[in-house]
Amino acid sequence: MSELRVATVPPGGPFAGLADTAALAGRHLLHLRRAPGKFLGIVMNPLILLIAVGYLFRNSISVPGSGNYQEYLMAGVAVQVGLASIGPTAIGVAMDMRGGLVDRFRSLPVSRTAVLVGQTLSDLIVSALGLMIVMLVGLAVGWRPHTGPLSVLGGFAVILAFVYAMLWVGVLIGLLLRSPETIDSVGAIVLVAFSFLSNAFFSVQGLPSWIRPLAEWNPVSAVVTSCRTLWGNPVVTGTGFPADHPVLVTAGTLAVLLAVCVPLSLRAYRKA
Question: Would you state the pLDDT for residue 2?
């Protein structure tokens, strides 16, 4: 492991936590240059889905209401950036734990919270860059927003909020499982389950009735519907509270995820 240098301010200072967080986030971003596979792992799955499903099969899949399937699909593909970020973040945390980094941090005047917040902020920057690439490719293959700049930016903000919540899910998984092999398997299950038990690619109305409520309350469905609405892309009319109030459901579910994952992650880190 490379030599660790963390710039800190005097312990207990008013900006100690912020300085530690910035330094640790910078450390993770510098390491990305030596491990570009992490970035590729985040963007490749969404790009493959966008090109294979949205471009090659665009004429084979119809959207209820005669909507453009590429525009319908784009929000679902964008959400994949967040789901695909869970595994790399979890593995990064697990590798740091196994490599003795926790003991080294404990010997330094470094905020305990800053260690995990720095990890998630650096990964958020990486995911934001990945999202930008995915959206640019989407524009190249036919996706178009049909609303004003503020609504379009609002859609991106919803995606990034979802990404940040997923990063904390990844942190918690990494702290609890510790094994990269196990994390890889769990991450794949989460990616597939949350993607296909949602309206990311197809309307939930086509799912069996017994599983439809689960898909309707899936956070991915709420995020995707919110983005489609904000971008002016086709939205398949659903029934029930999640379909009628997607933004409210998105805000509530992401708040619950953060309220659960952040404290549990900090507690697991302190006990490590």
Answer: 45
Distance CA(226)–CA(79), nearest Å, equals 11
Q: Which of 63, 41, 44, 60 is nearest to 228 (CA)?
A: 63
Q: Is 211 exposed, middle or buried (0-12, 13-18, 19+ CB in 10 A)?
A: exposed
- pLDDT per residue as tens digits for the range 71-109: 999 999 999 999 999 999 999 899 888 877 777 777 777
> What is the model's pLDDT at position 146?
94
Phi-psi region of 65 (alpha: psi -120 to 50; beta: other; left: phi over 0): left
Burial letters for 173-187: b for 16+ Cβ neighbours within 10 Å, e otherwise?
bbbbbbebeebeebb
Contact 134, 40 (CB under 8 A): no
With tokens 């990063």, the residue in question is 167
CB 183 within 8 A of CB 91: yes
What residue spans define the domains of the chain? 16-271
* 23 alpha carbon, distance to own chain's centre: 22
Q: What pLDDT was estimated at residue 3?
A: 47
Q: Does residue 127 or residue 13 have the better pLDDT?
A: 127
Q: What are phi and psi of 67, to 5 degrees?
A: -80, 165
Asked if the model's pLDDT at residue 17 lies above 60, the reply is yes
From the list 77, 71, 92, the residue with the least C-alpha distance to 133 is 77
